[in-house]
Design a protein that fits this description.
- The protein has helices at about 5-15, 20-40, 45-50, 55-70, 75-85, 90-120, 120-130, 135-180.
- The chain is an all-alpha fold and about 190 residues long.
- The protein folds into two domains: about 1-50, no CATH class; about 70-185.
Length: about 190
């Protein structure tokens, strides 16, 4: 594969990045080719030593998505980072998607439980309005207790969600470093 083919394939794989990032990466690889040619290597030797441009693009996109999550951990950024890391290989489909689904289910279940407990007094009051004959003070006081527990669950879920997101991003970074060629020993 010559320089032109390599750069074209790399640029096609980097379409998910911003134009500035893409241009910067392409410039770096053009410079790499220039240095290699100055050292007496052929374009084919340089492209072979760099590896697959498609795999390089996938790794760069995954790294970029993880950096975006570290800057602003929105739901969209997290999903894009997960899909970018899964796209690095079939092995990641199993290794990344399984823990992600489990953590997502845990977070959703916690928030739903907390929210249900918090709105329980409203449900009791709504029930009392619709069916006044079945109202019991015990139900109201019990639902107020559940509301308090729900507030504690929601506060706990706020901290748990932040910690789980941070740890999952660390896991994604670890996974990307493994795919890029293993962890570097210090």
């Amino acid at each position: 594969m010559n320089k032109e083919q390599f750069l074209k394939s790399l640029e096609n794989g980097l379409k998910k990045l911003s134009p500035e990032e893409r241009d910067d990466i392409i410039h770096d690889f053009k410079e790499h080719f220039s240095i290699g040619l100055a050292d007496g290597k052929t374009e084919e030797q340089i492209s072979d030593s760099l590896g697959s441009p498609k795999q390089i693009a996938k790794e760069l996109v995954a790294t970029s998505q993880i950096e975006k999550v570290e800057d602003t951990a929105t739901t969209g950024n997290i999903f894009r980072a997960v899909w970018a890391v899964i796209g690095l290989g079939f092995f990641n489909f199993v290794i990344v998607l399984g823990p992600f689904v489990a953590l997502l289910a845990l977070i959703v279940a916690g928030w739903i439980s907390g929210g249900a407990f918090i709105v329980s007094p409203l449900m009791v009051l709504l029930n009392a309005i619709i069916y006044p004959a079945v109202f019991k003070w015990f139900d109201l006081f019990f639902s107020l207790m559940l509301c308090g527990i729900g507030l504690f669950i929601a506060i706990g879920m706020l901290f748990a969600t932040k910690v789980l997101i941070k740890q999952f991003v660390r896991y994604l970074k670890y996974n990307v470093s493994l795919v890029k060629g293993g962890l570097k020993r210090e």
